[in-house]
């Protein structure tokens, strides 16, 4: 039996780094992404799809039913919309909601009902440190990631699968640079390869993975002292994001 993994958003950023780590572990990987990766990689198969189209997901997964169940499923794909909440086109907000929350929920439901997750397999959900802090200037993004965290926590309670939640802070990716405040240099952003290595090594143990120890502490402070963390982050991030021109992912 071939050990298989499924990764959404596997063509770039953290998704591509996770794909590389899973391939290095000897798994055959299927990546679902709207963008075609450059070149061909042994063991990697790509399905091109727009994950904002929730009604098309059943047909998308039909092509995977004949293979072995997945040992690892990584729900990683995500988009954002930055700017003052009231100024963002509602259609773009709907797409953020669909890609970040509705698609992973529906994909999980379809995979489970079609018995496409191996017994004792791992479900890995990529959330965000914004779950702990709130995110003025990217409110819908934060809301979808909080919803994803709650969904993952509920699945973990069933004990049927190993459920791992990943809460990255700022990563050194094109996506992060696109939505960062104007003038942000990104010197403190984490390498996606480093985080991917940690996630894949933890795939057999349920729980939560933060990007770094410092980010874990920030996340805990966001819960224990939300007013303090909001005050500290308002000038450096929140005010800049809210004042910035709206940025949306119009390709989806």
TrEMBL record:
Keywords tagged on the record: Membrane, Oxidoreductase, Transmembrane, Transmembrane helix
Family: Belongs to the short-chain dehydrogenases/reductases (SDR) family.
Protein name according to UniProt: SDR family NAD(P)-dependent oxidoreductase
TM region positions: 209-232
Pfam families found in the cross-reference section: adh_short (PF00106)
Signal peptide: none
Example of a GO MF term: oxidoreductase activity, acting on the CH-OH group of donors, NAD or NADP as acceptor
Domain of life: Bacteria
DNA repair is among the record's keywords: no
CDD domains xrefs: SDR_c
UniProt entry tagged with the keyword Membrane: yes
């Amino acid at each position: 039996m071939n050990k298989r993994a499924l990764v959404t958003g596997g063509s770039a950023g953290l998704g591509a780094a996770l794909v590389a780590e899973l391939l290095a572990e000897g798994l055959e990987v299927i990546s679902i992404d709207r963008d075609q990766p450059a070149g061909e990689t042994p063991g990697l198969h790509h399905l091109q799809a727009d994950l904002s189209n929730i009604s098309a997901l059943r047909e998308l997964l039909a092509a995977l039913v004949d293979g072995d169940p997945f040992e690892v499923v990584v729900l990683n794909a995500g988009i954002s919309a930055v700017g003052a909440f009231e100024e963002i086109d509602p259609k773009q907000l709907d797409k953020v909601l669909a890609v970040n929350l509705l698609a992973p929920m529906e994909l999980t439901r379809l995979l489970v009902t079609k018995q496409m997750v191996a017994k004792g397999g791992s479900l890995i959900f990529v959330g965000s440190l914004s779950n702990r802090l709130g995110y003025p200037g990217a409110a819908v993004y934060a809301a979808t990631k909080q919803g994803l965290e709650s969904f993952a926590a509920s699945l973990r309670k069933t004990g049927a699968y190993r459920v791992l939640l990943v809460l990255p802070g700022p990563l050194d990716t094109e996506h992060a640079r696109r939505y960062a405040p104007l003038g942000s240099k990104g010197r403190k952003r984490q390498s996606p390869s480093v985080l991917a290595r940690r996630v894949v090594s933890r795939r057999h143990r349920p729980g939560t993975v933060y990007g770094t120890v410092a980010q874990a502490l920030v996340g805990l402070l966001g819960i224990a002292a939300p007013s303090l963390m909001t005050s500290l982050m308002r000038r450096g991030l929140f005010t800049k994001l809210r004042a910035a021109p709206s940025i949306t992912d119009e390709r989806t």
